[in-house]
Amino acid sequence: MACQLVTGGAGFIGSAYVLQARRAGIRIINLDKLTYAGNAANLSPLADDPDHILVRGDIGNEELVAFLLQTHKPDAVVNFAAESHVDRSIVDPDAFVRTNVLGTSALLRVVKDWWRSLPADKAASFRFLHVSTDEVYGALQPGDPAFTETTPYSPNSPYSASKAASDHMVRAFHETYGLPVLLTNCSNNYGPRQFPEKLIPLMILNALEGKPLPVYGKGANIRDWLHVEDHCSAIARVLEAGLVGRSYNIGGHAERTNLEVVRAVCSILDELVPQARGPYAELIAYVTDRPGHDFRYAIDCSRIENELGWKPVHKFDSGLRETVKWYLDNSAWVAHVRSGAYRDWLAVNYGQRNGADGMGGAR
Question: Distance (Å, rounded) from C-alpha 337 to C-alpha 272?
Answer without folding.
Answer: 23
